[in-house]
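Attaching the record inline, Q. Sequence:
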Amino acid sequence: MDDLALTLKVVLPLFFSMALGYGVKCAGLVCDATLKQMNNLVFRVFLPLMVFYNIYTTDLAGVFQPRLMAYSMITAAAVFGLAALIIPRLERDNTRRSVLIQAVARSNFVVFGLTIAVSLYGQEKAGMTSLAVAFITPIFNVLSVVVLQLYRGGRVEVKKILKEIALNPLIISCMLGLLTLFTGLRLPAVVEDTVVSLARVATPLALVVLGASFQFGSVRGYKKQLIIGVAGRLLAVPAVFLTLGVLLGFRRMELVTLLALYCSPVAVSSFTMAQQMDADGELAGQLVVFSAVFSVITIFGWVYLLKALGLI
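Structure, as predicted:
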């Protein structure tokens, strides 16, 4: 019963926050334009502040695990590679191929992942997961742009990719957090208190905005792609790489970090990138929606299984 209660503690806030957002949208309290602005605000202000603060307050000696970071980075790239090999055999349309590869390989690590880590071990121990964000986010961004550009039929522009990475708010916040961590720089108390207050807004607001963005439109013509993308993201990837992580000896907070990385649904930013780079934006949006909905069930299953086995 304790395992069940803890698992519900992880998934119910995700469900209720997204349900609230969907209810707000249905009630007409927000419009699409407002949601777009709120999503932009979350991505550019609140999430970066949360990531920065989690790294800023991290006990480096206690959470920096080179073996875990290396495994996370290698497997994050490996998922892209495996998806790039498998998806073209299952889908002929290039605009859908790139979307499916990105959906299977790129998780909503920041929003869902950090929420899972905090729910299981508390805010004070989420530094390890936040530190992993600093290493994984550049890999997600680089490989997503490469995949979308390749199936777009264009040449991969290295300078453009590097510029996008350098200007990514999450990357900037990660670098600033690491700078304070390694140099020992401390913020003035009043500034730190402000950062704390704003950082606490990030996760609930991001989940509410995500729920409000749900549009359960027609899935006609996308059934096969949705099954591939959602099953690949929520079932296949965690099954393979969590199992491998367990066999390599990762436990407790280390395994929770991997759980956060592999079990989170499709990254919301994948939808925006697909639109901007001439991929199938409608499919990308549907994958974000359906993976987020079904992730409530699958995250419950993965957390309960690992907890029951005494691994986390």
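The radius of gyration is 19 Å. The chain has a mean pLDDT of 82.

More tomorrow.
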